[in-house]
């Protein structure tokens, strides 16, 4: 039975670059785009999962919410940590906003790290990696995280939460294993996204008064060259800690190789020498100081490196056995994975379309009266 109650649904399709939309058979998505509002928007840089999920859930830039990487390095203590805890978050979530309005918010994700990072204020919160027992009883156990079917399970779980609970606002985030593994146009990718589209259509049909925002955290590109920035600088007598911003525990996805890197120098007096070395290295496309990066990309200055690097389209940074290695993988993190879809449906008249992915939250959630 269709619900007559107004609900808010925001979906972040992990790794969903515009090329996947162009190549895939997704009639429901395209219908919603035609009936609502759709544009090519931007992900926040660096174009990685944690940074952009945090931006969408808090409707803000990293300078406000504080998440600047999938992985944290503290140069004072020398300690490194995966960014998987809400203690890193510095801004209220949409779930906390819902509570303030006397509403209930829920969070359904594929990756448990997104749930544990962003669940403050959520009345219901679970992931495919740590599923809710009641949902498992109704729709079955989730497939493994390295499958296409895990995303289908997430949307089925989201549908059940919207239909069977009194949740008012729901945030859904998938995983990008399929985009890391298959290019647009490959059969496995086409099957994955066609089924995802069918499930999206079922959710929309359930709720005639649904307010829907759909976007992505980043796109995806093929990479053929990898550079170990720490080894490169060490060859020139410059000691540093080079943090690949993409680094997390899902190494099957990307092997911890991505298109952005923070560089923490042991000796800051070598910063100009380091810039010169990096500028001469093919594949290092942009070099920004801490101050430049914080201002230009709206990053929290005290949480980023002395230098912020962005790679060429075909290049990734990470820890390697040599300075330069040929690779064959699909990954993200750079400016070249910044273009993402921004779709609004049921949001009412829009004066202007959002520019960034997190603007869907601002547009789709009604302003407080």
Which descriptors apply to this entry?
Alkaline Phosphatase, subunit A, seven-stranded mixed beta sheet, four-stranded antiparallel beta sheet, 2 domains, 369 residues, alpha/beta, Gyrase A, domain 2, 34% helix, single chain, globular
Molecular structure report:
The chain is α/β, with parallel strands linked by helices. The protein has two domains: 240 residues, Alkaline Phosphatase, subunit A (3-Layer(aba) Sandwich), CATH 3.40.720; 111 residues, 2-Layer Sandwich (Gyrase A, domain 2), CATH 3.30.1360.110. Helix content is 34%, strand content 24%. It contains 15 helices and 16 strands. A seven-stranded mixed sheet has the order 2-16-8-1-7-5-6, sandwiched between helices. Strands 10-11-13-12 form a four-stranded antiparallel sheet. Strands 14-9-15 form a three-stranded mixed sheet. α3 packs across α6 and α8 packs parallel to α10. The protein is globular. The two termini are 30 Å apart.
Condensed summary:
The chain is an alpha/beta fold and 369 residues long.
Describe the secondary-structure layout.
Elements: E1 7-12, H1 18-23, H2 27-35, E2 37-42, H3 49-58, H4 62-65, E3 71-74, E4 79-82, H5 94-100, E5 105-109, H6 112-118, E6 124-127, H7 133-139, H8 149-164, E7 169-173, H9 177-181, H10 187-206, E8 210-215, E9 221-227, H11 229-234, E10 240-244, H12 251-254, E11 260-265, H13 271-279, E12 284-289, H14 290-297, E13 307-311, E14 315-317, E15 324-331, E16 339-345, H15 359-364
Parallel strand pairs: 1-7, 1-8, 5-6, 5-7, 9-14
Antiparallel strand pairs: 2-16, 3-4, 8-16, 9-15, 10-11, 11-13, 12-13
Helix pairs in contact: 3-6, 8-10
């Amino acid at each position: 039975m269709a619900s007559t109650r107004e609900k808010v649904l925001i979906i972040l399709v992990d790794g969903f670059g515009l090329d996947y939309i162009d190549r895939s058979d997704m009639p429901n998505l395209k219908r919603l785009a035609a009936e609502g509002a759709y544009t090519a928007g931007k992900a926040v840089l660096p174009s990685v999962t944690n940074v952009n999920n945090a931006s969408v859930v808090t409707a803000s830039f990293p300078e406000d919410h504080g998440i600047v990487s999938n992985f944290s390095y503290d140069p004072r203590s020398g300690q490194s940590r995966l960014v998987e805890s809400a203690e890193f978050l510095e801004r209220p979530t949409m779930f906390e906003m819902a509570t303030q309005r006397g509403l209930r918010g829920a969070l359904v994700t594929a990756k448990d790290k997104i749930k544990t990072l962003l669940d403050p204020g959520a009345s219901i919160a679970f992931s495919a990696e740590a599923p809710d027992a009641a949902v498992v009883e109704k729709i079955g156990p989730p497939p493994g995280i390295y499958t296409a079917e895990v995303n289908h399970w997430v949307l089925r779980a989201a549908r059940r939460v919207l239909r069977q609970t009194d949740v008012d606002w729901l945030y859904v985030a998938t995983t990008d294993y399929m985009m890391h593994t298959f290019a647009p146009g490959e059969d496995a990718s086409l099957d994955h996204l066609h089924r995802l589209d069918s499930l999206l259509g079922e959710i929309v049909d359930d709720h005639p008064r649904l307010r829907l925002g759909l976007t992505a955290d980043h796109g995806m590109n093929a990479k053929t060259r990898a550079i170990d920035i720490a080894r490169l600088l060490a060859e020139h007598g410059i000691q540093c800690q080079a943090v690949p911003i993409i680094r997390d525990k899902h190494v099957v996805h990307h092997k911890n190789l991505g298109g952005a890197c923070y560089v923490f120098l042991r000796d800051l007096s070598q910063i100009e020498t380091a810039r010169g070395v990096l500028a001469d290295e093919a594949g290092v496309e942009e070099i920004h100081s801490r101050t430049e990066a914080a201002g230009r990309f709206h990053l929290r200055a005290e949480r980023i490196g002395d230098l912020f690097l962005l790679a060429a389209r075909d290049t990734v940074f990470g820890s390697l056995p040599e300075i330069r290695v040929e690779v064959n993988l699909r990954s993200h993190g750079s400016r070249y994975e910044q273009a993402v879809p921004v779709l609004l449906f049921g949001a009412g008249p829009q004066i202007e379309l959002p520019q960034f992915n997190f603007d869907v939250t601002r547009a789709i959630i009604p302003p407080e009266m």
